[in-house]
């Protein structure tokens, strides 16, 4: 199937430039050469106009780097871009990469383009790029949604209160956007255009070494970036742990996680591709429904939140009033344990289970969802004030998690403080915001999980 019309938005309705040498695609959110609606639309339009396709990527570096990104994030990103570049070359699509903002490279290369195609992300910095491009590019601009299953505005026109309010809206539209994407044959190769990159992405390690960035958080070996690796992991998950996903997904020691989150964050795999593969896998309907709930409903609730919340990284704007009020009422409650940022980052608390989860996060860039909730609630409990806790939780999340700085990051941290939730029984420190006690660690085998983390960290240290 070709791209669904509901995914397509025309940002500049000018006709294609008759003097254009190519159709330009700003590969920014969907960093992959396959199952990419924006790319397939660019190829389709290029074939219609008798032109080649050029994809481009602007790599933020130095003082203009992506906010809070460090060597861990950039290493994974660059591995993915190297994989995508190979895929583009195989298809006859040009690829240009420079150290500049995505807006800058798109605006420059659009001067010779008949048409500019954008993919779509929802963070404030991404919206800023699209706005700048819209103001300065005069040729036709088409934006194609490929990062969610149901396009955001089609799913909902407002900020949703919770998953239960978005779920029926998503489910009503779901089947209409769960379609295989046909690969469009490239009729005109970009090889003879003479465009060249200032970055040789064939050696991502060398590119990383040349960058000016925060290296205090090193790359991890547990996860390798790229759409090839994403599909390998998805296949392994669906042929193994997925058969018992509904029963084991809440047990960190069970190895039932798909590990798709980093690949989704960096646009290295399509959520539609994931859901279609899950639906075709051998598993019960309950297992499939539980997985789709996570990949679609919960993830797209996060997109809805950052899209409709101007300052989603601010405690005063992102957290609902009822939650801020009840946390303020309990702000002076005695806190038996208070820890510094350094103590938290190093896992130096009285809570052995929390320390183990923090170690997995710090050393490997991942933590199971069940533990992420517990981890966040404890940071709230161990901070001087709710606002301080929110800011610290977000800092730690975005610094160490491979999928940090994602809409899911801002939304999940917000959930710790009452976002997308309701009042619960009143407690010290938390007021009526949901509390999570150490008893939640008894729902799984903590000793087995600890052994797994120790093994993973040993492997990481040897790599």
Automatic annotation (TrEMBL):
Gene3D superfamilies per the record?
1.25.40.80, DNA Cyclobutane Dipyrimidine Photolyase, subunit A, domain 3, HUPs
- Give the top-level enzyme category: lyase
Per the UniProt entry, the Enzyme Commission number(s) are: 4.1.99.3
- Single annotated GO MF: deoxyribodipyrimidine photo-lyase activity
Keywords, alphabetical: Lyase
> Which ranges carry the Photolyase/cryptochrome alpha/beta domain?
21-152
Signal peptide positions (record)? none
**Lyase: present as a keyword of the record?**
yes
**Official protein name in the record:** Deoxyribodipyrimidine photo-lyase
- Taxonomic source organism: Mesorhizobium liriopis
């Amino acid at each position: 199937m070709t791209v669904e019309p509901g995914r397509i938005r025309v940002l500049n309705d000018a006709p294609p430039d008759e003097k254009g040498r190519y159709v330009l695609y700003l590969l920014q959110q969907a960093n992959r050469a396959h199952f990419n609606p924006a790319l397939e639309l660019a190829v389709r339009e290029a074939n219609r106009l008798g032109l080649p396709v050029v994809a481009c990527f602007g790599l933020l570096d130095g003082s203009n780097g992506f906010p809070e990104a460090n060597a861990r994030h950039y290493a994974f990103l660059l591995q993915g871009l190297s994989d995508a570049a190979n895929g583009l070359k195989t298809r006859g699509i040009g690829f240009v990469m420079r150290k500049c903002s995505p807006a800058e490279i798109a605006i420059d290369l659009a001067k010779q383009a008949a048409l500019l195609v954008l993919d779509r992300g929802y963070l404030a910095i991404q919206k800023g790029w699209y706005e700048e491009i819209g103001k300065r590019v005069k040729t036709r601009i088409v934006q194609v949604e490929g990062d969610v299953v149901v396009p955001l505005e089609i799913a909902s026109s407002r900020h949703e209160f919770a998953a239960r309010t978005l779920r029926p809206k998503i489910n009503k539209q779901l089947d209409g956007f769960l379609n295989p994407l046909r690969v469009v044959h490239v009729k005109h190769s970009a090889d003879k255009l003479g465009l060249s990159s200032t970055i040789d992405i064939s050696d991502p390690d060398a590119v990383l070494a040349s960058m000016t960035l925060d290296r205090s958080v090193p790359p991890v070996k547990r996860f390798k970036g790229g759409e090839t690796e994403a599909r390998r992991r998805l296949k392994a998950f669906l042929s193994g742990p997925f058969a018992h996903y509904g029963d084991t997904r809440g047990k960190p020691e069970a190895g039932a996680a798909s590990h798709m989150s980093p690949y989704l964050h960096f646009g290295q795999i399509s959520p539609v591709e994931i859901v279609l593969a899950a639906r075709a896998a051998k598993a019960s309907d309950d297992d499939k429904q539980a997985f789709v709930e996570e990949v679609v409903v919960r993830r797209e609730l996060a997109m809805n939140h950052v899209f409709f919340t101007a300052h989603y990284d601010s405690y005063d704007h992102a957290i609902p009033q009822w939650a801020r009020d009840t946390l303020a009422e309990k702000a002076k409650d005695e806190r038996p344990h208070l820890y510094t940022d350094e103590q938290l980052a190093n896992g130096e608390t009285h809570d052995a289970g929390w320390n183990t989860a923090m170690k997995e996060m710090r050393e490997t860039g991942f933590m199971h969802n069940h533990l992420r909730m517990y981890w966040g609630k404890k940071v709230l409990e161990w901070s001087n004030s709710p606002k301080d806790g929110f800011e610290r939780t977000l800092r730690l999340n975005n610094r160490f998690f491979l999928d940090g700085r994602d809409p899911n990051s801002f939304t999940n941290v917000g959930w710790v403080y009452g976002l997308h939730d309701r009042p619960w029984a009143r407690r010290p420190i938390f007021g009526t915001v949901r509390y999570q006690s150490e008893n939640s660690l008894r729902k799984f085998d903590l000793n087995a999980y600890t052994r797994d983390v120790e093994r993973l960290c040993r492997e990481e240290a040897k790599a």
